Fold this protein.
Amino acid sequence: MIFCIALYIGLFTVATTKHVVVNWDISHITVNRDDYNLRRAIGVNGKLPIPPVEATIGDTVELNVHNGLDRPTTIHAHGLFQTNSTHMDGPAMITQCGIPPGDNFTYHYTLEQAGSMWLHGHLAHEISDGLRAAFIIRDKPGEELYHYDEDYLLTFEDWFSTEFADRIYHTINPNEAFPPPKSYAYGLVNGINGNVTQTLKFEPGKTYRIRLVNMGDINSFQFSLPGHEMHVIEADGEYSIPYAADGIDIAPAQRYSVLVKAHDTDAFNYQFNATMHANFIPASPGLSPRVYTGKIEYSAGAPYRDTRAFYEKPDFKWLNDIEMQALDGQPAMVPTRKLYLEIGNNLYSTGQHLDHINNITFAMPNVPTLFTVLSMGSLAMDPRVYGPQTNAVVLKYGEVVELTINNFSTLLHPFHRHGGTFQITEYGPASSTSLAPEPFQNIAVQKFSGLPMRRDTVSLNEFSYVKVVFQATAAVNFFHCHNSIHSAMGMNMVFIEGPDVLQKTLQIPNAMYEMCRKQGIPTIGNAAGNIGFDFTSLPNVPTIVNQTGDDQ
């Protein structure tokens, strides 16, 4: 199947940009989303699910947030590059203080890229309790890189019967067994029970773009469309050369777009499949994995096509992102600096099993990291000023970094880089696979060929490593596992990119300083709010008691 890539040589269009205003009143609500559990959640304007935000490349978006919660909140625009606007990125105590209860704050986004993004809370893992919505940025009319007739959106979420605060309490409570008993979520498709989601209507001969956005907490979703050909054209807001796949395994925070050509007849209807799964949750009939199906309707009265043989074919093709090719033709970047990360779980001196990167379990600083950059002068180039548990790495503006991440656990970890993408260049076995269980003894090395794909969230498999390459900008970019439990347990770090350039070019609005002042949060000094390397007001750094390797 061939799709046309539009070329616009000599074609000029008059483009108009818009100022899109979105108002969010964030508050607790009581809701039954999965048809089984009535529970407290976080909604917007009194409702869940939160409607998608839609705009066009070149637009400006004004997101007006009123915090109606009883605790601070922030919003992260997941996938936006935030060029010259790192202060609008959203992670609490990294680029801003939280929005105080009862207060208002406005995020300003200048849209320089098209793609399937999303918005979510970035404090106290409020994402897990419902504070998440798709953010679709379309190409300008007439400038689409691929032709399609209609555009569908499918969002995927895992929904638990209890709030995140309860789940993390039982995970890190030193007086309870670790790991805690497994909890089983329900799957939501477009915000409701995955088996009752709305029908996707197809007309014979038309081409459809289907956007797949995993806004889930810890679970992946395997998506397939039996009886049709899927060609993947986007990963995390980056376009690719069409890549044929029968199935796509979508880790938390990952997004894809596929093009699907409808059949020439409406004689049959079909079903799409979205199977929710997590490798650390034992298989149990009806609980894990959970299989959800939705209707592809060609004609209201047509029978369903029997597609059971689709899953039995010997050449069933799962998407592999290292095989994808970047559409814009950017070659592999040559690294000028190499960094090595090891991730895992340890028993620490606090009595807690905590996650780590290079044996450092993350803790928030007393001063937002970006504010430390802007207030510490030449010392901002020294990673020590950001504190012993912020896990900060200072990068020079423009340097090209190769990051090798080794995963020595039996769990998958989706790693997300804020503020930009990275090229995926290699997968392989973690360096100590001699200690790995039998299923992980023979992991093959896979290297890119051609034009490496870029994305912002990479799925790091069990007992494996991944190599990614990116170029440092002028920003403070959070880097973390996007499994909410793992992030809450400390699997985070911060890239301080071009701090000297930031000091010359960035000015933080007074409203952001005022939010800090209202909460008694210092806005100058090192991570502790002190001068130089005095960290006396920070908590003691926990030490490793026993290395366990596995987390929740």
